[in-house]
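Hey, can you fold this one?
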Amino acid sequence: MNRSFTIVCIVSLLGATASGAPPDNWSSTSSSLWGNGGNWSKGVPGSGDVAKFNGSAGLQTSITLLPSSVAGSISFLNAGGASDYTFDTAATVNRNTLTLGSGITNSDVGSLTFYNTTILSGSQSWNNSGGAMAFNGKVNLGSGSSGGTLTVTGAGDVSLNGVVANGGSAAGNLTMAGTGTTTLSGANTYTGSTTISSGTLQTNTNGALGSGNPLSIASGATLYLNGTSQSVGAFTSSGALNMGSGGAFTLLGSASLAGTLSGTGTLTLNAGSTLTLGANFSDSGINIVLNGGTLKLNGTSDTFGGLSITSSSIVDFGTTGSSILNVNGVSLAGSSTLSVQHWANLVDYFYSNKTTGTQGTAPENQIVFTGHSGNATVWNSYTDGPDNGHQVTPVPESAFYGSIMIAFSLAGIMAFRRRHPFGNRLPYRQLRRELENRLCYRASFDHLLVPVRVPGSGSKGRLSPAK
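Sure. Predicted structure:
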């Protein structure tokens, strides 16, 4: 045998080995059967093959799968022009399965539609840089005892319209890492985590994020609820949470919310959940429902719509900096209580644009500040003065407050008698009237007085008008 020919063969063999097995090209111009070996360049694909479509023009684009079809991966090219591929039909949805070992790559600008059940035999990436990809059948994130992670990448849009399930006994995970939009439209049952690293994840039906699954939204990424109702477990966000119109987002575990919050709807904190706010939010269209959970402000200034307490809950003003909570109104169901923790006078502010009731009676006395009883809680009806408009605050108990006023009155009468040129001769009623006028005038400005140190006075401080 010629030596040079032998060397060329060896080099060619090594090159083929290094680059992997050649793809199995779909070559049929008439038959649609996946299971027909003559429709492929190498025969029916196996679990280690790349099933390649759209290598040339005029190919059959409506594919009928086997009951159990397999491939290592699928690749769609645009070499033969844009082609709209479909796998099975709406009438045979989920009748056949396609098991993939390492994912999908698409650059075909046509649309791809799958009506079969798609099974992941391991973690994999679906990269779509072409036209829209729609999976109208089930997507199983694993099989048997193994669970995988499906990562969606690329700038193209991907729609998971069927049910996304674990597929086996282990939890499956879903990650959005592209720059396009991935849409979930099924009542999904997978129990693993949902990670939005980039792009947009959109939900089109209630329960699309599973029930109590962990969820994270990275900076620059978006979760768009599109007005649907979703319930999640552990939750972190430094990206964008867009409720859409009338969305409902329920937290079941520990959570932190930074980034942005937009849209209208309801944010509910169930028992066992603590939501720590890491940014200043101004979203009057979003109502907060505390159903046994804890809302922690942690040095932020936040405005929401209504604050509803459906089961005894906590608002924690945190221990860092000044925290401000401004809501349209506060409502408490039944005998539920709202415990206000780590609130510091003249540091933290709790505003309600609507009255919380009458001091000493329900429901206002169901708002309890740490160190005070519920009967001490009062809603300030006045709006004049800095930081005092419509505050919900604790005040001294009525008996104690009365004692203070009596003491002030006695001291005032004595001082007035000494200073007034005819003080000792004025009738008691006139003295009282003069004193009340002076006290009322001073009380209206007391909230503007703050303690300051007088240089060189030797005293600790005095009351002076606030600036």
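The helical segments are 3-19, 398-419, 428-446. Let me know if you want another pass with a different chain boundary.
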